[in-house]
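Protein: Large ribosomal subunit protein uL23
Species: Aromatoleum diolicum
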Amino acid sequence: MSGFSQERLMQVLLAPQISEKATYVADKNEQVVFKVVSTATKPEVKAAVELLFKVEVKSVQIANVKGKVKRFGKMTGRRKDWKKAFVCLKPGQEINFAAGE
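Structure follows.
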């Protein structure tokens, strides 16, 4: 492993981001979208995906998503900011969430 503790890598990925946009990106660019811990770095995300799903990762792009402002009556609140990782897989690799590995 490339210098990361296995415990840390197990906590980096929170969930796959499943939406119309994520599905479109997955089909077009052979990418998978994950919700990740807000302190995650690109090398950590790459190592975590390779460890958990036994696939080869070509590259990782990360986006910070700002939390929306929501109202509840007079009160205004704000959802938490979160981080999204676009993981590009090497040709011929795929992650199938429907199979339930």
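Remarks: The beta strands are 13-16, 31-36, 57-65, 69-72, 75-78, 82-89.
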